[in-house]
Write a structure and sequence with these properties.
about 120 residues, mainly alpha, two-stranded parallel sheet, about 5% strand, globular
C-alpha cells in the first residue's frame, strides 16, 4: 500500500511510453516530479508541470489546451485534487461556490476539454 510519495513511486508499474496527468498542488507536484525523476528510470521520457487551477473554469480549459499543444495522446489521468472545509460563501473567480468549482466543475471542464 502506498502511504507516501516514495511508496507510491515504488508501486508503479512500468510506465515506459505512457503519457499521464496527475493533478495536485504546485509545490507538491514539483517536489514529486523531482523525486520521480531521481527514482524512476524515465529513459528518454520527461516529466512536465502544467499549471492547473481547478477552481477556475477558464484556467482548467486553458491548462487542458496547453496539454493538447504539447502531447498527441493521454494514457492515464489521476484526477484526485480537491478541497474541503472552505467557507461556503467563498466564490471562485467564475462566481461559483469555490469548493463545488474546484471539486466538480474544474475537473469536468478539464477532462471534457482533453476529450475534445
Amino acid at each position: 500500500m502506498a502511504n507516501s510519495e516514495e511508496g507510491f513511486l515504488k508501486g508503479l508499474d512500468d510506465l515506459t511510453g505512457k503519457v499521464a496527468i496527475v493533478t495536485g498542488n504546485r509545490e507538491k507536484s514539483l517536489k514529486g516530479i523531482a523525486q520521480a525523476e531521481a527514482t524512476l528510470p524515465i529513459g528518454k521520457g520527461s516529466i512536465r508541470f502544467i499549471y492547473l487551477d481547478l477552481s477556475s473554469v477558464e484556467t482548467a480549459k486553458e491548462s487542458a489546451n496547453n496539454f493538447l499543444k504539447l502531447e498527441d495522446r493521454l494514457d492515464i489521468i489521476v484526477a484526485n485534487a480537491g478541497v474541503s472545509m472552505l467557507n461556503r460563501s467563498e466564490l471562485s473567480h467564475d462566481g461559483f461556490e469555490r469548493m463545488f468549482a474546484t471539486n466538480h466543475l474544474g475537473h469536468y471542464v478539464f477532462i471534457n476539454t482533453l476529450l475534445g
